[in-house]
């Protein structure tokens, strides 16, 4: 869980940074997307880097989802009878209790939509694959505001997922002492904020016409 | 003061249980929570009813027997306090209080509020010790231990094995209990030779017993009456990772 | 001098302790005792009842040696035995402080502290073994307090002049017990020990004069079963709960010991009870137990009461010259640090005179104002912070601002089943260890010595002495349908059937509470002939009423906590009577037993060595108990009157 989570986080950071090319304009953004695909050519076949990344990503996602299912099933079995009365969580990662699992489900649905939208373009008006910029601008165009809202909602869920996930992964892998645990929690919070805001700025800018 | 209680009643392990309401009057605020239940039980016996069964022994916060979930919180609302040390002055006249047993598949209910926590003993059997047969010990001063290590080991060893961590954990995980023992023994030089086998054995026993996996939500530490911190879970994870790699 | 209450019997002697220089006796005995060869140990089964320090250490060690052990406790886990609650520490003659300690000094202090009512040979062995206990526990990983250099820390405890007490914050008993518990669980995993938790021993099985088994009730299912073996060890703890309110855990009881007593085991010095001076006073009728505040508080707290009777002003409003610092006044040399028995009785005296504070006038102040002024609040907090927090949780009062209220409470029972030097009772094959036996502490136990005794018995003494007995085994197998087995089971069944069938109207607790009041009033801190005689009458009629009116709900085939309590209280009622008889017959004052008739002019305890230098070993008798005396001889520590003026 933790290792796959960390890989996903790394991907997200890179992805988020890549998305910011949008602000440089169509040429740069598409060049970046093109660059990813033609990396190493002609020595390596077309899209090799992308496929290496994709396979890594798919593997990480598969492991991640599989462990999530295992953990959730174990948790359900470990508490077959629920409490009749509930109290708000009190622990160090109290928001995680309420948000991790349904948040993950939202993120999961989001990713499916997102792939259909921006990778396969099934639901995107711009079918021209090299034109990533066009696709992004089209999908978040003001008339399609529900898409933007859905993206933002997913990012909100992702924020909670990351805020807990990042320090949780560190706790699982390296087991920091109290001082470092507090620091990791702060770092997790900061990274979650940066990543999510970094993502959010794109649809918001497009929807409000700052990028067109 | 006057209270309305809702208490989990379940005649035995097989039977269906349910929450049953009781009104209780003239509760002294100097009484402990368990003494309040004693008073209720005396009344129930007088009325020919079966008194409410609950585990308790020392009534001073050290044996780890008492185990009530009060309004959804293991050991009730007061931090760092076992149920037996919780006093009624923490409640107000007219309060409605829900009382339930620890809920975990690994801790099946035996009767009413009494659960079977023998899974914890099985975790200890799987490695939660230092093998030092009687009579084989060198002089106690043979190995000095830095004070900080001894103090940290003590803080982890202060776990009373109550199981509130499991009761509080959304995943029903016993990581805090297990981590406390792994940290205690792992911090001492005597504990080193068996450090790897210990953690592998204990984790296997933990999973076999049906406890859930930890997702670091930290509810356990918040409920722990002995304030065992999440760093013991970190230590356990670290030892486990090293031991697993070594064993592989 | 038989009275109506008891008959005189033959004297008893402890024949097992070798003669010769005291420092060589234990070595000699170990050498003369027969051994069991390792291959035979597997064929020998030993029952150990109890998983406290005394029981867990014995069961683990016997398991390690290769015997087949069956171990029992009534709690849901063996880790919860009442030893877990000990706070202060454990003594050992390590002399790590170079302050003049030695085995001989620990021996000397303990014999004197016991007010010359214990056996020299036993106490010396205890002092010798004490050092090995610390080594053993450290090897197990017990996190004792350490100094910055990494070596073990010691403190002085209970007024001792040397620092020989090892401790683990305020939770020494817990850490020692966890060490023994883990050793025990290791043996459970290894298959040498069968551990049965939530099982209560209700009867002893004696076949051909030898202890051969026990009858137990599974507290979850109610199933009654028999465990048969070659020897039985009782490590079932103290019986302070006969007073209802005590510092003991709710489940502490005398049933195992009392059942053995009824089958012929002698009960020695039952009236020797330790009353601890610094406990939190009772707050009301609902109270179920009393909580000990560590004795160490007296190092910095000053004890006082208002001079004016019934003065109910806020303590801060009572000026200095209207306060009576009675310990400092009466015992200028020791002041607030006088031994437990003296401090307890002094508190009772001032409260009886009407100077007590708090509910019912049963309390005295333990004041830290001077210490806070002298050392600063920070320093006081560092030393006693968790005790202060505990006090506040229980009483709702803040001890930094208002002096604590304390009152004495029953804490430890020096009496118990009679054992010889080998820890064997007078029934062959029945051994008794820890607080359940009477040995080593005489009439008064010093702080930090019960843990020492429990572990000494379990780790080092019993495993060595029991082999001498087992060398004759394995004994002929006892069939389940042997008449002794059947009779023991029937006795258990009948008693349970009686309780469940009785058409009563009073709860078990109401009887227990009433018994406790009688015991506390007449057989508590101060005892008189008149009071004890009255108490015996009261207990007899209460016992009578108990069997007529007790009401137990539910059935046997379930977890039935009322049924458990009923059996325990039935035995307490009989024990209480014997305690009063013992206290009545011992018309001297000694240690924890203060007879008002035997005091010096200034109100101090007066021992009577000419007439009472013996152990009173009581044999059960249907009509009246029979007194067997074991004379005590003092070769190395000459009896003197204790003085703390
Ligand atoms: C609050 C407190 C503080 C103390 N502090 C100190 C201290 O600082 N230093 C010190 O030296 N001493 C101290 N003592 C005394 C000391 O803790 C005890 O005397 C000692 O631990 C007793 O150990 P034990 O093994 O004999 O009995 P226990 O620990 O009481 O164990 C008794 C065992 O017998 C079992 N049992 C009993 N009856 C039955 C039955 N019928 N069937 C089956 N099982 C049964 C129980 O389940 C339990 O496992 C303190 C005592 C108290 C109460
Ligand atoms: C398909 C969508 C996803 C699902 C179903 C999912 C599910 C989960 C679940 C169930 C957990 C366990 C934590 C808990 O329950 O409290 C978890 C943890 C975690 N997730 Fe995800 N997640 C998803 C996507 C992601 C993404 C996209 C990332 C990173 C960018 C991520 C990073 C993490 C991290 C770092 C952890 C913590 C691991 C640990 O506790 O050891 N997850 N996830
Ligand atoms: C909201 C801002 C986001 C924008 C503008 C955005 C944009 C894009 C674009 C343009 C692509 C296609 C790249 C290409 O094929 O060249 C893409 C792919 C992808 N995005 Fe996003 N994305 C956003 C957020 C997210 C989030 C939050 C996640 C995960 C939780 C995510 C996961 C993915 C994945 C898995 C792919 C497929 C990668 C691949 O093709 O290899 N994206 N995204
Ligand atoms: S870790 Fe805390 S909550 Fe868990 S068993 Fe130990 S003391 Fe109880
Ligand atoms: S609450 Fe449960 S999820 Fe882990 S951090 Fe504690 S065991
Ligand atoms: S009863 Fe022992 S901890 Fe609560």
TrEMBL record, chain A:
The chain crosses the membrane at residues 49-76, 96-116, 149-166, 187-211. Keywords: Heme, Iron, Membrane, Metal-binding, Transmembrane, Transmembrane helix. Its main location: membrane. It is found in: Membrane. InterPro entries: Cytochrome_b-558 (IPR011138), SQR/QFR_C/D (IPR034804), SuccDH_FuR_B_TM-su (IPR000701). The keyword Mitochondrion does not apply. NCBIfam families: sdhC_b558_fam. This is Succinate dehydrogenase cytochrome b subunit.
From TrEMBL, chain B:
It holds the Pfam family Fer4_7. GO terms for molecular function: 2 iron, 2 sulfur cluster binding; electron transfer activity; metal ion binding; succinate dehydrogenase (quinone) activity. InterPro entries: 2Fe-2S_ferredoxin-like_sf, 2Fe-2S_ferredoxin-type, 2Fe2S_fd_BS, 4Fe4S_Fe-S-bd, 4Fe4S_Fe_S_CS, Beta-grasp_dom_sf, Helical_ferredxn, SDH/FRD_Iron-Sulfur. Its EC number is 1.3.5.1. One of its GO terms (biological process) is respiratory electron transport chain. Residues 18-103 form the 2Fe-2S ferredoxin-type domain. Residues 150-181 form the 4Fe-4S ferredoxin-type domain. Its cofactor is [3Fe-4S] cluster; [2Fe-2S] cluster. Keywords: Iron, Iron-sulfur, Metal-binding, Oxidoreductase. Belongs to the succinate dehydrogenase/fumarate reductase iron-sulfur protein family. NCBIfam families: PRK07570.1. This is Succinate dehydrogenase / fumarate reductase iron-sulfur subunit.
From TrEMBL, chain C:
Belongs to the FAD-dependent oxidoreductase 2 family. FRD/SDH subfamily. It is a peripheral membrane protein. It catalyses: a quinone + succinate = fumarate + a quinol. Keywords: Cell membrane, Electron transport, FAD, Flavoprotein, Membrane, Oxidoreductase, Transport. Its EC number is 1.3.5.1. One of its GO terms (cellular component) is plasma membrane. The active site is at residue 340. Residues 512-644 form the Fumarate reductase/succinate dehydrogenase flavoprotein-like C-terminal domain. Its cofactor is FAD. It comes from Glycomyces lechevalierae. This is succinate dehydrogenase. It is found in: Cell membrane.
């Amino acid at each position: 869980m933790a290792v796959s989570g960390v890989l996903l986080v790394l991907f997200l950071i890179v992805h988020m940074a890549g998305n910011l090319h949008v602000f440089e304009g169509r040429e740069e953004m598409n060049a970046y997307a093109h660059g990813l695909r033609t990396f190493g050519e002609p020595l390596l076949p077309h899209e090799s880097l992308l496929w290496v990344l994709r396979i890594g990503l798919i593997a990480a996602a598969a492991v991640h989802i599989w462990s999530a299912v295992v953990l959730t099933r174990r948790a359900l079995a470990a508490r077959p009878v629920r409490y009749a009365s509930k109290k708000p969580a009190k622990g160090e990662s109290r928001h995680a209790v309420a948000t991790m699992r349904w948040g993950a489900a939202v993120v999961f649905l989001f990713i499916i939509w997102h792939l259909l939208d921006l990778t396969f373009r099934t639901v995107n008006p711009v079918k021209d694959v090299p034109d990533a910029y066009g696709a992004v601008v089209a999908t978040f165009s003001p008339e399609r505001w529900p898409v933007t809202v859905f993206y933002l909602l997913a990012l909100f869920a992702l924020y909670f997922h990351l805020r807990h996930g990042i320090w949780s992964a560190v706790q699982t892998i390296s087991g920091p002492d109290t001082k470092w645990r507090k620091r990791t929690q702060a770092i997790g919070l900061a990274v979650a904020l940066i990543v999510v805001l970094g993502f959010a700025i794109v649809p918001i800018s497009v929807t409000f016409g700052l990028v067109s | 003061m006057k209270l309305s209680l809702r208490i989990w009643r379940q005649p035995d392990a097989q039977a269906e249980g349910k929450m049953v309401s009781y009104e209780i009057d003239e509760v002294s605020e100097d009484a402990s929570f368990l003494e309040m239940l004693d008073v209720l039980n005396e009344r129930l016996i007088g009325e020919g009813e079966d008194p409410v069964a609950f585990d308790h022994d020392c009534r001073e916060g050290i044996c780890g027997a008492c185990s009530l979930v009060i309004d959804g919180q293991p050991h009730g609302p007061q931090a760092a306090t076992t149920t037996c040390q919780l006093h009624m002055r923490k409640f107000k006249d007219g309060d409605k209080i829900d009382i339930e047993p620890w809920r975990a598949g690994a801790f099946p209910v035996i009767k009413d509020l009494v659960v079977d926590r023998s899974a914890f003993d099985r975790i200890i059997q799987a490695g939660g010790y230092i093998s030092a047969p009687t009579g084989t010990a060198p002089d106690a001063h043979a190995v000095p231990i830095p004070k900080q290590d001894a103090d940290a080991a003590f803080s982890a060893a202060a776990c009373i094995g109550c199981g509130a961590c499991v009761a509080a954990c959304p995943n029903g995980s016993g990581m805090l209990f297990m981590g406390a023992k792994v940290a205690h023994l792992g911090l001492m030089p005597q504990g080193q030779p068996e450090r790897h086998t210990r953690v592998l054995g204990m984790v296997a026993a933990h999973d076999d017993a049906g406890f859930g996996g930890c997702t670091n939500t930290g509810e356990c530490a918040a409920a722990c009456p002995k304030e065992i911190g999440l760093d013991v879970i970190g230590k356990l994870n670290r030892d486990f990772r090293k031991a697993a790699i070594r064993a592989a | 001098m038989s009275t109506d209450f008891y008959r005189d019997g033959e004297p008893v002697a402890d024949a097992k302790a070798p003669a010769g220089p005291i420092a060589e006796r234990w070595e000699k005995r170990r050498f003369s005792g027969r051994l069991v060869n390792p291959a035979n140990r597997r064929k020998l089964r030993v029952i150990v009842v109890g998983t406290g320090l005394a029981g867990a250490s014995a069961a683990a060690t016997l398991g390690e040696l290769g015997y087949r052990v069956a171990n029992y406790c009534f709690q849901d886990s063996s880790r919860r035995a009442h030893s877990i609650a000990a706070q202060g520490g454990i003594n050992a003659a390590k002399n790590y402080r170079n302050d003049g300690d030695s085995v001989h000094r620990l021996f000397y202090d303990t014999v004197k502290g016991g007010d010359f009512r214990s056996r020299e040979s036993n106490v010396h062995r205890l002092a010798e073994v004490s050092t090995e206990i610390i080594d053993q526990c450290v090897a197990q990983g017990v996190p004792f307090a350490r100094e910055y250099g990494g070596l073990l820390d010691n403190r002085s405890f209970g007024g001792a002049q040397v620092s020989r007490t090892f401790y683990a914050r305020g939770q020494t008993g817990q850490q020692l017990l966890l060490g023994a518990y883990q050793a025990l669980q290791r043996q459970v995993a290894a298959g040498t020990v069968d551990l049965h938790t939530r099982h209560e021993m209700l009867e002893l099985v004696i076949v051909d004069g030898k202890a051969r088994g026990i009858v137990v009730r599974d507290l979850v299912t109610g199933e009654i079963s028999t465990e048969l073996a070659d020897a039985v060890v009782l490590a079932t703890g103290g019986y302070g709960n006969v007073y209802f309110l005590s510092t003991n855990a709710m489940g502490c009881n005398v049933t195992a010991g009392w059942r053995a007593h009824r089958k012929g085991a002698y009960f020695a010095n039952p009236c020797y009870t330790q009353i601890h001076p610094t406990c939190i006073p009772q707050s009301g009728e609902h109270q179920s137990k009393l909580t000990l505040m560590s004795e160490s508080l007296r190092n910095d707290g000053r004890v006082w009461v208002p001079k004016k009777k019934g003065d109910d002003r806020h303590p801060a409003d009572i000026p200095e010259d209207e306060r009576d610092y009675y310990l400092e006044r009466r015992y200028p040399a020791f002041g607030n640090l006088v031994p437990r028995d003296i401090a307890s009785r002094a508190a009772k005296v001032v409260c009886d005179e009407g100077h007590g504070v708090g509910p019912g006038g049963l309390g005295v102040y333990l004041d830290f104002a001077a210490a806070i002024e002298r050392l600063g609040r920070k320093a006081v907090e560092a030393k006693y912070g968790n005790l202060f927090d505990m006090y506040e949780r229980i009483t709702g009062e803040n001890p930094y601002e208002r002096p604590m209220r304390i009152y004495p409470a029953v804490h430890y029972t020096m009496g118990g089943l009679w054992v010889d030097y080998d820890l064997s009772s007078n029934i062959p094959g029945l051994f008794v260890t820890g607080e359940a036996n009477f040995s080593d502490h005489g009439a008064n136990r010093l702080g930090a010595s019960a843990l020492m005794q429990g572990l000494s018995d379990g780790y080092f003494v019993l495993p060595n002495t029991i082999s001498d007995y087992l060398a004759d085994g394995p004994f002929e197998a006892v069939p389940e349908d042997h008449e002794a087995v059947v009779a023991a089971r029937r006795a258990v069944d009948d008693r349970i059937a009686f309780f469940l069938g009785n058409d009563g109207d009073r709860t078990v607790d109401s009887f227990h509470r009433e018994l406790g009041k009688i015991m506390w009033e007449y057989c508590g801190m101060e005892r008189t002939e008149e009071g004890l005689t009255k108490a015996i009458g009261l207990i007899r009629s209460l016992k009578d009423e108990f069997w007529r009116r007790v009401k137990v709900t539910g059935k046997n085939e379930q977890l039935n906590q009322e049924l458990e309590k009923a059996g325990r209280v039935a035995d307490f009622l009989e024990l209480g009577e014997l305690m009063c008889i013992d206290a009545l017959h011992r018309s001297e004052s000694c240690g924890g037993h203060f007879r008002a008739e035997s005091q010096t002019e200034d109100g101090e305890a007066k021992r009577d060595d000419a007439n009472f230098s013996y152990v009173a070993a009581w044999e059960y008798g249907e009509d009246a108990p029979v007194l067997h005396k074991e004379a005590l001889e003092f070769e190395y520590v000459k009896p003197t009157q204790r003085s703390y003026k």
